[in-house]
Amino acid sequence: MSIDTLQATEELLDTLIHLLDESNPDDLLPKILKSATQILHADASVLEIPGDETLLLFYPEKSPISLSAVKKAKGENRVILWNQLEDDDLDLSQSIVQNQLTSIMVAPFRTPQSESGYLYLQRKARTDSFSEQERLLFESFVTVCEKLAFTAYDRLREKESLDVLKGICRKGGIIYGSEPMVNLMALAEKLAALPLPVIIRGETGTGKELFARWLHSESPRRDMPFVAINCGAIPENLIESILFGHVKGSFTGAIENRKGVFEQAEGGAVFLDEIGELPLSMQVKLLRVLQEKHITRVGDNREIPVNVRVISATHVDLEEAVKEKKFREDLYFRIQVMPVEIPPLRNRGQDVILLAESFLEKYCAEYGRGRFRLSRASEKALLSYSWPGNVRELENKIQKSLIQAVRGVISPEDLGLENVSEQVKNSPRTLREARESAEKTVIHQALLDSKGNLTLAATILGIDRKVLREVMERLKIRKEEYKN
Predict the structure, then answer these.
(1) What pLDDT does 373 receive?
(2) Residue 373 DSSP class
(3) N or C: which end of the chain has fewer CB within 10 A?
């Protein structure tokens, strides 16, 4: 075996190993296309999977292709290699000449979604033609990749079936199964179709913008723009220009007319994140836009009509802000037509594990680290942790864990939750242990308060002194440890 052949074989094996790690067809198929292009040194490639929603992928970018070659490969159900003008196939030859190509390979590509897909590679004129050896390599590559695709689709169906059995829902990146989220999403589905303004409440990191994007994607405005800004991250002197736009020369640095987010989102939705941080001067102007449905650019006096749905979000207690005169009451009622509250992660139960596994799958693929799973100790630690940073903190911990983890398993130490794991390990595991732990806690406090005086401690606890003595003996608590 020559050095070139050996290198090509090693490259192919390495590619297939990485493709094996992809369990989702949406991630696998683009990688198959890219890998075929790189391994066979093609200038352009196309993968088509017909179906209810035809998948058509190009790499590196959309280029003209020979439809005659595609038709021939499908008709003869084999790999087609074209390298020169052939008298017996004028249509193919003409297509090649018109597209200024020197070589083409195309193969039928079958998936559970369609039997009539294809994988197409081409080289431009003035480059070397595909060789017969490369045709054989391409044929083997397609055969293996078809099997990988079938496996990925099977895994996806199994996953979807398990999700149904476990009551797990996946909607636009929102993954849940807990009762608080089920109730929230049931309300959200009703809101999506209505033109009402919506305010999303919740702690920092709960995923308010993700929820807003899903709400827009399910609305009648889904095909129109969704423009998001963070009201608390924009300097006060710039926020009016960013919201409503400006005209050339209206202030230093305004070198051209510029649309604000309300004009950019025409027909769609504007997402005002952290609206509770909006300065009072801007609250007045925003209220006017919501009431009159037109904006005026900075430095202009013309009124421009706008048609947008306003979705806002905040972690601020707006009711308290209204009382403290930090937020206008009239604006509060304008945006508060339909409030929704995203529950904190600590109240979502097993959703923590679902989200962790989803992030793990996402970043394993992104970092090229293969497959990793959570250990049982990690799952317990994830469920026991309070998550002050909510979903954003969970995502951050999963990302960091993949940098440290080895041998395909994520440990509590990798997640930075070793202390939580230790607490879980030492926590009561039976009803008897839990009862004894609770008894020790309250007796300990009573003895501290009474400085070891059993009569006073029994009075605090509401039991007889004799009963307290018996319990202390059973729990091996010594009164001498509490006397000064």
Answers:
(1) 87
(2) E
(3) C
Supply 189's token pair. 């589905």
Q: Are 1 and 99 in contact (CB under 8 A)?
A: no
Cα–Cα distance, 105 to 20 (Å, whole number): 24
The predicted pLDDT at position 64 comes to 80
Structural domains of the chain ordered from first start: 3-159 (3.30.450.40), 174-341 (3.40.50.300), 346-426 (1.10.8.60), 431-482 (1.10.10)
d(CA 237, CA 239): 6
Q: Are 265 and 225 in contact (CB under 8 A)?
A: yes
Tokens linked to 463: 């039991």
Cα separation, 178 vs 197, in Å, equals 26
Three-class secondary structure assignment of the chain:
CCHHHHHHHHHHHHHHHHHHCCCCHHHHHHHHHHHHHHHCCCCEEEEEECCCCCEEEEECCCCCCCHHHHHHHHHHCCCEEECCCCCCCHHHHHHHHHCCEEEEEEEEEEECCEEEEEEEEEEECCCCCCCHHHHHHHHHHHHHHHHHHHHHHHHHHHHHHHHHHHCCEEECCEEECCHHHHHHHHHHHHHHCCCCCEEEECCCCCCHHHHHHHHHHCCCCCCCCEEEEEHHHCCHHHHHHHHHCECCCCCCCCCCCECCHHHHCCCCEEEEECHHHCCHHHHHHHHHHHHHCEECCECCCCCEECCCEEEEEECCCHHHHHHCCCCCHHHHHHHCCEEEECCCHHHCCCHHHHHHHHHHHHHHHHHCCCCCEECHHHHHHHHHCCCCCHHHHHHHHHHHHHHHCECCEECHHHHCCHHHHHHHHHCCCCHHHHHHHHHHHHHHHHHHHHCCCHHHHHHHHCCCHHHHHHHHHHHCCCHHHHCC
Rounded Cα gap, residues 138 and 107, in angstroms: 8
Overall residue count recorded for the chain in this entry: 484
Q: pLDDT digit string (tens) for 234-255?
A: 888 888 888 998 888 777 777 7
pTM score over 0.70: no
Contact 208, 250 (CB under 8 A): no
